[in-house]
Structure formats: C-alpha cells, structure tokens
Design brief:
Helix content: over 70%
Radius of gyration: 24 Å
Number of helices: 7
Strand content: under 5%
Order of helices and strands: HHHHHHEEH
Shape: elongated
Length: 202
Amino acid sequence: MDFKGYARKKAIALKRNFYTIPFVFNIITLVIFTCAIYVHAQVCPRVDYQETNKFILQLNHLNALFLFIITLFSILAVVAYIKYMGRIKNYFMLFIYYVLSISQIILEVFLLIGIQKDYQVKKVADNPSAALLQTISLEKNSIFLIYLHFVFLGITLIIVSFAPLIQKLLKSVKFSHISEDGSIEVNATEETISETVNSEEK
C-alpha cells in the first residue's frame, strides 16, 4: 500500500469536507452514552435518599424518564447534524442540533445531582451490606460516565461550532506536491495532487 498517496488523498478529502470530523466526534459521544446506559439504568431505581427539597425530590422520581429523553436526544442530535452537513448547509437543522445537545446537558445535570447526593449519603453508611456496596460502586461508575459524556459532548460542540472557520482555513491552505522524481512543488493545486494520487492507484 502506498502510504504517501493514501495520506495525500485523505488530506484532500479532509480539506474539501472537514465536517466529517465533527460527525465522527458526534458518533463517539453517542457511543459513549449508549454504553453508559447499562450502568445508569441500574442506578436510577436505587436513588432513594431522603431529600428535603421538594423540587430535587421530584427530579429524582423522573430519573428514568430523563435517561430515556437523553438517549433519544443523543440519537436525534446525530441525525440533525447529518442533515446539516450536506453540500448545502441546513442551518435550521444546526439550530435543532444545538437545542438537542444543550437539552442533553441540562437533563444530565439533573440526573447527576440526584446520583451524586445519593452516593454521598450511602458511601458513609455504617456496616454497609453487599447490596449497598454494589449500589455505591454503580453510582460511582455512573458519575464518572456522566462526566466523561460531558467532556466529549463539550469537545464535540466546540468542534461543530468552529467547523465552518476550520473548513475555510483549510481551503486556503496550499498543499506541497511530491512528484515522481521526489521533487517538491510548493503551492500545488488539489487537481494536481488528485491526478497524481489517481495515477499511483492505477
């Protein structure tokens, strides 16, 4: 396999459409949350600490619903971004994407509040049973996975926001072209590099 030709080909593809990078990050973020559902689903029914704040108490009763909505919004956000990243940018779908992503963060914060408070109460319990120790371990893992999802979702939103600027900067970059005899032509055009890559493939 010709690594040089493959690398040049991928560089040109990235230059022409940088939006595949934020799409990949959206998929990674979705996969992370989807894998975390197994832990969250076990934790939500176990959040049973006595909360004096009625608002927080009501939120705790809705944890399972929040988990379902976040999962749904995660999938719909990816779909919305796919609709946006076409050749003709659909900015309404980008707006929907941001609404879905920010909604995920808000609902996940509510989810995190209940789990963290329950974890803080249960981890200091005297003579914990085996079942309680399992709950504490699950809640600890759930909290970690929520923060991990926050990190990747934040990175993804930043990349999505700056994608148009990065795409514009990439289009202004001129690649250096390596000819067959090894000489380098500075400021070679995409067409020149494409022709070389195609000829190497043949």
